[in-house]
Write a structure and sequence with these properties.
Strand content: 35-45%
Oligomer: single chain
Strand order of the largest sheet: 1-2-3
Structural class: alpha+beta
Radius of gyration: 12 Å
Low-confidence stretches: none
Number of strands: 3
Length: 60
């Protein structure tokens, strides 16, 4: 399933905000969207790696 426009906007907004945080090393999309098994009800599993810490933020 291709990612919906509203979820793509959430990802774009999320990554845009993180560029202002010092120490951000990576932004990772996980879960069903990352492996191509998402449905219309799937949430977004997002992870930020910041100076050896992982912050998980899931949002519909």
């Amino acid at each position: 399933m291709k990612i919906s426009a509203d979820k793509q906007k959430l990802l774009d907004d999320f990554t845009s905000e993180l560029k202002f945080i010092d120490g951000v090393k990576a932004i990772v999309l996980g879960g069903s969207h990352a492996v191509g098994l998402a449905t219309g009800k799937s949430d977004l599993d997002r992870y930020s790696i910041i100076q050896n810490k992982v912050i998980s933020t899931s949002k519909k």
